[in-house]
Amino acid sequence: MNSTIATIKAEVAKVVVGHEKMIDALLIGLLCEGHILIEGIPGLAKTTTVKALSEALGLGFKRVQFTPDLLPSDILGAEIYDPKANEFKIKHGPIFTNLLLADEINRAPAKVQSALLEVMQERQVTIGDESFKLTPPFFVMATQNPIEQEGVYQLPEAQLDRFMMKLHVGYNTQEEELEIARRIANKRSEPIRSVITLEELETLKRSVAAVHMDAEVEKYIIELITATRHPERYGLSELKGKIQFGASPRVSIDMFKAVKAMAFLRGKEFVTPVDIAYIAKELMRHRIVLTYEAEAEGVTTDAIIEQVIKAVPIP
């Protein structure tokens, strides 16, 4: 593992126990300039993790709690009238930061969701007649609470597609939970140090881009994605009636970048099919639309992806 990455992880581990895959996903999103959607019940250290990461990286961090009465201006900012100067002034919203935590994004109505997702795509905010470019790096981690059924507005598939990865975060192990309880009860948390500069972060990004990917591995990625659209070509005819829409073209772009970052985090200079398999579900699970029949049978996109990985020949 790259020594800088190891140092960052060590700082985050001061306040976060376990959740290795979530930390890896956040680092991948940061290194690839992609956004992450995390689904998990409350109390699983989602907020703590992204805040700890921002401190270790020395980046700006803001959190927005999404609610049904939230307005787009509450996130983006607005024109405010100044009676003393007799003019309107721009007041920037919390979107003007480096790491934004959009907590329980599915609690806000469509107008607010679309305002945030537009900024995620364009990395630009328009307030009144003025447009403002966001200062890089800009990275959104959004959370969803899967146990809430009332007062929520599910993200449409087209908007889910803007997220590079979607993670499912579960409970810690018994050993990890025991360590968490001991730390909190004994107030043993250590302060997090900023261990990297923006210049060093840009160097890490260039190192990720330089990770080698063989042409056969590139073809393998495209084969995996094609298999979700035309499963019958890969001996998976039984999936034809279960998949309404296969993975979108954004998956191939994001997967090419993310698997390089995954290999880099593992200290390798080239991508292997193992790197792809490790994060394939996170990259594709929110970009495959199942048929009504599949949902009625309890089929999940994760199960579909597992079948696809088994069916497509490994180079």
Walk me through what this model shows.
The structure is a single chain. This protein has about 325 residues and is of the alpha/beta class. It folds into two domains: about 5-185, Rossmann fold; about 210-310, Orthogonal Bundle (Helicase, Ruva Protein, domain 3). Helices cover about 45% and strands about 15% of the residues. It contains 13 helices and eleven strands. The chain has a five-stranded parallel sheet. A hairpin with a 4-residue loop joins strand 3 and strand 4 (about 85-90). Helix 11 packs antiparallel against helix 13 (about 300-310). The two termini are about 25 Å apart. The mean pLDDT is about 85.
* Derived structural class: alpha/beta
Strand order of the largest sheet: 2-5-8-1-9
Strand content: 15-25%
Number of helices: 13
Largest sheet: 5 strands, parallel
Unreliably modeled segments: none
Number of strands: 11
Helical percent range? Answer: 40-55%
What series of H and E elements makes up the topology? HHEHEHEEEHEEEHEHHHEHHEHH
* CATH topology name of the largest domain: Rossmann fold
- Main CATH class of the largest domain: Alpha Beta
CATH architecture of the largest domain: 3-Layer(aba) Sandwich
Q: Could you tell me how far the N terminus lies from the C terminus, measured between alpha carbons in angstroms?
A: 25 Å
CATH superfamily of the largest domain: P-loop containing nucleotide triphosphate hydrolases
Task: Tell me, rounded to a whole number, the average pLDDT.
Answer: 87
Rg on CA atoms, Å: 21 Å
Compute the number of structural domains: 2
Shape: globular
